[in-house]
Design goal:
Pfam families: GIY-YIG
Shape: globular
Order of helices and strands: EEHEHH
Helix content: 40-55%
Protein name: GIY-YIG nuclease family protein
Organism: Tamlana crocina
Number of domains: 1
InterPro entries: GIY-YIG_endonuc, GIY-YIG_endonuc_sf
Radius of gyration: 12 Å
Structural class: mainly alpha
Number of helices: 3
Length: 78
């Protein structure tokens, strides 16, 4: 999960590559939701055996549509 202080928004996604490489793509020039800010930072990660499992987890979190749930996940690892 990424967070932008400028937008005060979270971004939930998954990657099959390294998390830091993926963050750099979000910070570079591209189209999409994360292109609206350049201050994204990693605030939460989870590891999975497969990209499919990671994608299922992403969908689960997004279906919750809850900022409170996301912030509880982040606090759970602090």
């Amino acid at each position: 999960m990424l967070y932008s202080q400028q937008l005060d928004k979270y971004y939930v996604g998954h990657t099959g590559s390294s998390v830091s490489e993926r963050l750099q793509k979000h910070l570079s020039d591209h189209k999409g939701f994360t292109s609206f800010a350049k201050d994204w930072q990693i605030v939460f990660t989870e590891a999975f055996e497969s990209k499919s499992e990671a994608y299922q987890r992403e969908l689960y979190i997004k279906k919750r549509k809850s900022r409170k749930y996301i912030e509880e996940l982040i606090r759970s690892v602090e």
